[in-house]
């Protein structure tokens, strides 16, 4: 089972050296366990844009997204045996990054739509 884990939290200071060290260890542990497929952090929302379609019209809004209390700070794509295992890895992750929330979404596999 593959899961996309998206972390949302307050946009603020860059990670501390200790946080980077702790994250490096966690990423190493996930790679050694064979569960990590990809992971990246996101740059500040000031460097981003939102594309929205409403009533057939497409609008583009450049960042920063000041109306948001939380922004996407990064993601991990993992392959595990269960949702419970995904939750456990995400608990370890959020312990490192601190405040915010991580949403875990199972990715649909083709067989999921075939019966």
What is the mean predicted local confidence, pLDDT? 90
CATH class: Alpha Beta
Low-confidence stretches: none
CATH superfamily: Dimeric alpha+beta barrel
Q: Strands of the biggest beta sheet: in what spatial order?
A: 2-5-1-6
Q: What amount of the residues lies in strands?
A: 35-45%
Q: How would you name the oligomeric state of the polypeptide chains in this document?
A: single chain
List how many beta strands DSSP finds: 6
* Backbone structural class: alpha+beta
The ordered string of helix (H) and strand (E) elements is EHEEEEHE
Largest β-sheet summary: 4 strands, antiparallel
| The CATH architecture | 2-Layer Sandwich
Total helical segments: 2
Mind explaining what this structure looks like?
- The chain has helices spanning 17-32, 83-97, and strands at 2-9, 36-41, 49-54, 57-62, 71-79, 101-106.
- The protein is of the alpha+beta class.
- It has a single domain (2-113), classed as Alpha-Beta Plaits, CATH 3.30.70.1060.
- Strands 2-5-1-6 form a 4-stranded antiparallel sheet, covered by helices on one side. It has a two-stranded antiparallel sheet with strand order 3-4.
- The chain is flat.
- It starts with a strand and ends in a 9-residue tail after the last strand.
- 11% of the residues are buried.
């Amino acid at each position: 089972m593959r899961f996309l884990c998206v972390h949302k939290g307050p946009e603020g200071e860059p990670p501390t050296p200790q946080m980077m060290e702790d994250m490096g260890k966690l990423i190493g542990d996930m790679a050694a366990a064979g569960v990590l497929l990809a992971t990246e952090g996101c740059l500040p929302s000031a460097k981003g844009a939102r594309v929205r379609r409403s009533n057939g019209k497409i609008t583009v809004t450049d960042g920063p997204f000041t109306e948001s209390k939380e922004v996407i700070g990064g993601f991990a794509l993992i392959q595990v045996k269960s949702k419970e295992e995904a939750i456990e890895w995400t608990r370890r992750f959020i312990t490192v990054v601190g405040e915010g929330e991580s949403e875990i979404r199972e990715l649909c596999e083709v067989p999921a739509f075939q019966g």
